[in-house]
Amino acid sequence: MSTAAAPPEIRRRDVIAAEAVKIATDPIAIALLAAAAAVNTLLAVIDASGTTFYTGGAREPSTLSSFGTLMLAPVYAFLVLPVYAAAGEYRGGQLRMSLTATPDRRVLLLGKVAAMIAAALAAAVIALAPARLIIGVSAGPGAGGLLLDLGRWVAVYVLMSAVAFGLAGLLRSAIAPLGILVTLPVVVATGVLQWPAGLRFLPDQAALSLVGTPAYDVHELPPGTAALTLALWALLSLAGYGAALIRRDA
Q1: Residues facing 53 on adjacent strands
Q2: What pLDDT score does 99 carry?
Q3: How far apart are CA 71 and CA 48, in angstroms?
Q4: Spatial separation of the C-alpha atoms in residues 170 and 24, rounded to whole Å
Q5: How many CA atoms lie within 13 A of 84 on its CB side?
Q6: Largest interatomic CA distance in the chain
Q7: What phi and psi values does residue 52 have, to the nearest 5 degrees?
Q8: Alpha carbons 95 and 112: distance in angstroms, whole number
Q9: What is the pLDDT, as a whole number, of residue 56?
Q10: SS3 of 79-148
Q11: Which of 58, 134, 169, 224 places its Cα 20 to 30 Å from the Cα of 145?
Q12: CB 19 within 8 A of CB 112
């Protein structure tokens, strides 16, 4: 009498590895990671060269590093990586294939989030380390200062990636989350919204405070508060995506 063989156990590390491979082999994400690294390096070279700029009403020239919104701008190209990782599940029946391979949605969610964070961390170091090293060497803060500066920037990229990933999964779209995240700093920069007490808790404004270059003095948050704010945005976005993946998506 023969018995049917039990299905192989689905190990979490295998799910994480599979999701990481999907992220690492996305040609669009790879191209925009290279673009983010190149633009970051170019901005760093300009800043390290000592070139100064005058802004309207300013009496003293400023270096490029003083323009936090500009220095942070490459992150929006970088965010294509987590956005496509989440939204890609909703193209061409990919989600059905993923659920066939991993029927336990909680295991699939864990694998996707863990792979995204690991990929974002590695990619952030690639995109930022050369630029922050160039700026750090020219500024001379020492090894400790260099590592702290790089750590803050990497934290911003990873937490912003988690926000973008969660929004992309929740909205099942690659365009909508990027539109939201790009529009927010543009609207704030126009000065149309005059509510600094609330605006400073938006993801992009918290990110600028965390790296020490708030867009406006009234939007500045202490680094610890800024990090906590970004972490809460990331957790809320991932929780929304998790609820959608487990209960809504089929």
Answers
A1: 62
A2: 78
A3: 13
A4: 22
A5: 21
A6: 91
A7: -115, 160
A8: 12
A9: 59
A10: CHHHHHHHHHHHCCCHHHHHHHHCCCHHHHHHHHHHHHHHHHHHHHHHHHHHHHHHHHHHHCCHHHHHHH
A11: 58
A12: yes
Q: For residue 116, which of 5, 241, 11 has the smallest C-alpha distance?
A: 241
Q: How far apart are CA 47 and CA 223, in angstroms?
A: 23
Helix, strand, coil content of the chain in percent (nearest 5): 75, 0, 25
Question: How far apart are the C-alpha atoms of 51 and 53, rounded to whole Å?
Answer: 7
- Give pLDDT, residue 54: 67
Give all strands (DSSP E) within the chain, no chain letters. Answer: 52-53, 62-63
The identity of residue 66, as a single letter, is S
| Token pair in block for residue 146 | 């260099």
Give the DSSP H/E element, type plus range, for residue 38: helix 27-48
* Residue listed under structure tokens 């070139």: 51
Q: Which residues contact 138 (CB under 8 A, 6 or more apart)?
A: 47, 48, 50
